């Protein structure tokens, strides 16, 4: 039944990317990839769409790495996976 | 294969085929749940419209529930009645498929509403075995269990289709039998013609119950009492009708954005802005302005919504389109999980009106347009984009901004 319908998700900015994150005994990141974490500047939790079947639960960390980079990573508490994200 | 039609000899005259799929909108809205049509179900009222039912199932009719009945009255008559959310977008899509199937056998369909279409069988006999039966057979293969009524005029063909059944899905009436066929039929069949308004009900109240009685009334009296609708109804009852006006196949240009979360308010306005930008960037537009567009949405809770807008002046200016379409977003009764913009008619090529006094801006815009055009030529449609803030306050970063086509300067 398809016609010339350009049905597509909008191209979003700042989409999450899978990341290799090593965590310490306190469940906080200690390394992202090959870079050690110098400091955890901030952490917060985002919960959304809990009223639907596609709940979103993330624990964010803003990190300063040993090489000076400032990165944001989050642990997807539903999928149990780590991701980096800009913005 | 359906039961053979009752045809008569010497069928060389002009014949109109009416394709009728009863309760089409209800069946389309049910989708995969068509087994529910055996229960007492009815199409619910469209959001923002009068609270009356759409099409109803046969079982609902046994309780006295009819199309156009108020919801409260229907539920009091039939407490087990289940309401199905209307799906105008889905109905439109499925009906387009039906019209395309008619066109695939060589027919040029005319259709004012989903569920009923007409096409002229003249000219098709040669490509379908040389007979009307060949044309009907080809239509039956393409359209399955649709009801087919065949007669010399559009209205008579509709009457013939309304007299078919599941056991006998095709009925043909030749010209020399048309008066005898129409005479005993009820005037209620005239309701298929919206231009007659409430004339059928008025005729019934006055005791004119059949088309034969209507045809026997003098034309001057009908004109004096009912005006042009009265004369039109009399002509239909006497077997006359206007020629068919086949549809012009649309140039489907649609942009749709799926929204992972149900959105409303300002996020919808931003999404509309994105849709307009993407629509204006489509190559199919070929520089033409937009004359008529349709905005549609699918709701998170199910069902669809659609509204058509005809611009007073055809335009390809994003700001003007936004001004026209933005108020329509306020008609959405529920959060949407997708929003779509479809062009129903194009206007003439969009012309740029230059200024009398040139302050250099026109030249800069021209250079920018040239640069964007070259970038898209080299790297595709997605080469020139801009950041559009959809929900800048969202706690989820990827929902804050999207990439939209850069508007033509």
Task: Give a structural overview.
The complex is a heterodimer of chains A (about 90) and B (about 400). In chain A, a hairpin with a 7-residue loop joins strand 6 (about 35-50) and strand 7. A 7-stranded antiparallel beta sheet of chain A has the order 3-9-8-7-6-5-4, with no helix packed on it. Chain A has about 90 residues and is mostly beta strands. Chain A has strands at about 5-10, 10, 15-20, 20-25, 30, 35-50, 55-65, 70-75, 80-85. Chain B has about 400 residues and is α+β, with helices and mostly antiparallel strands. Chain B has 14 helices and 13 strands. The longest helix of chain B has 19 residues, at about 360-380. The N and C termini of chain B lie far apart (about 60 Å). Chain B has a 5-stranded mixed beta sheet. A 4-stranded antiparallel beta sheet of chain B has the order 8-11-9-10, with helices on both faces. Chain B has helices at about 25-30, 60, 70-75, 90-105, 130-145, 155-160, 180, 200-205, 210-215, 220-225, 230-235, 265-280, 320-330, 360-380; strands spanning about 15-20, 40-45, 80-85, 110-115, 115-120, 145-150, 170, 255-265, 290-300, 305-315, 335-350, 385-390, 400-405. The interface of A and B includes residues 4, 9, 13 and 85 of A.
Helix content of chain A: under 10%
Strand order of the largest sheet of chain A: 3-9-8-7-6-5-4
Number of helices of chain B: 14
Distance between the termini of chain B: 58 Å
- Quaternary state of this entry equals heterodimer
Quote the average pLDDT of chain A. 83
Rg of Cα set of chain A: 16 Å
| Class per helix and strand makeup of chain A | mainly beta
Task: Summarize the amount of helix of chain B as a percent range.
Answer: 25-40%
Average predicted local confidence, pLDDT of chain B: 85
Determine the structural class of chain B based on helices, strands and strand pairing.
alpha+beta
Overall geometry of chain B comes to globular
The total count of strands of chain A amounts to 9
The tally of beta strands of chain B, per DSSP, is 13
Q: Order of strands in the sheet with the most strands of chain B?
A: 4-5-1-6-7
């Amino acid at each position: 039944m398809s016609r010339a319908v350009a049905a597509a998700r909008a191209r979003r900015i700042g989409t999450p990317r899978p990341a290799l994150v090593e965590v310490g005994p306190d469940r906080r990141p200690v390394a992202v990839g090959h870079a050690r974490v110098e400091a955890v500047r901030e952490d917060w939790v985002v919960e959304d769409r809990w009223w639907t079947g596609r709940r979103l639960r993330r624990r964010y960390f803003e990190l300063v790495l040993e090489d000076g980079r400032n990165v944001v990573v989050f642990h997807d508490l539903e999928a149990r996976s780590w991701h980096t994200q800009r913005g | 294969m359906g039961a053979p039609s009752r045809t008569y000899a010497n069928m060389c005259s002009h014949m109109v085929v009416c394709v009728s799929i009863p309760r089409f909108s209800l069946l389309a809205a049910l989708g995969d749940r068509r087994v529910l049509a055996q229960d007492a179900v009815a199409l619910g009222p469209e959001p923002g419209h009068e609270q009356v039912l759409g099409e109803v199932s046969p079982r609902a009719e046994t309780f006295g529930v009819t199309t156009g009945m108020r919801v409260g009255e229907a539920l009091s008559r039939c407490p087990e009645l289940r309401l199905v959310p209307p799906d105008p977008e889905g109905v439109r899509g499925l009906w387009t498929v039906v019209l395309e199937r008619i066109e695939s056998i060589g027919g040029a369909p005319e259709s004012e509403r989903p569920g009923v279409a007409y096409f002229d069988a003249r000219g098709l006999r040669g490509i379908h075995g040389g007979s009307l039966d060949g044309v009907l057979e080809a239509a039956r293969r393409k359209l399955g269990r649709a009801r087919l009524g065949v007669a010399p005029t559009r209205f008579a063909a509709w009457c013939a289709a309304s007299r078919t059944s599941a056991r006998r899905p095709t009925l043909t009436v030749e010209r020399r039998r048309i008066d005898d066929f129409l005479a005993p039929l009820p005037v209620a069949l005239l309701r298929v013609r919206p231009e007659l308004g409430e004339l059928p009900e008025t005729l019934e109240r006055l005791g004119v119950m059949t088309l034969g009685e209507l045809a026997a009334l003098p034309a001057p009296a009908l004109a004096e009492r009912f005006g042009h609708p009265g004369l039109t109804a009399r002509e239909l009852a006497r077997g006359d009708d206007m020629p068919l006006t086949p549809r012009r196949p649309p140039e489907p240009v649609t942009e749709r954005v799926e929204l992972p979360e149900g959105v409303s308010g300002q996020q919808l306005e931003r999404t509309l802005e994105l849709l307009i930008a993407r629509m204006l960037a489509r190559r199919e537009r070929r520089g033409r302005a937009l004359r008529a567009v349709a905005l549609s949405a699918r709701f998170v809770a199910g069902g669809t919504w659609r509204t058509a807008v005809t611009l007073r002046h055809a335009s390809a200016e994003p700001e003007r389109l936004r001004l026209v379409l933005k108020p329509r977003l306020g008609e959405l009764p529920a959060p949407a999980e997708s929003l779509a913009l479809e062009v129903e008619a194009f206007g003439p090529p969009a012309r740029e009106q230059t200024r009398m006094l040139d302050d250099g801006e026109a030249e800069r815009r021209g250079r920018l347009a040239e640069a964007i055009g070259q970038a898209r030529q080299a790297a595709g449609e997605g080469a020139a984009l801009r950041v559009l803030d959809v929900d800048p306050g969202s706690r989820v970063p990827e929902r804050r901004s999207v990439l939209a086509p850069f508007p033509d300067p």
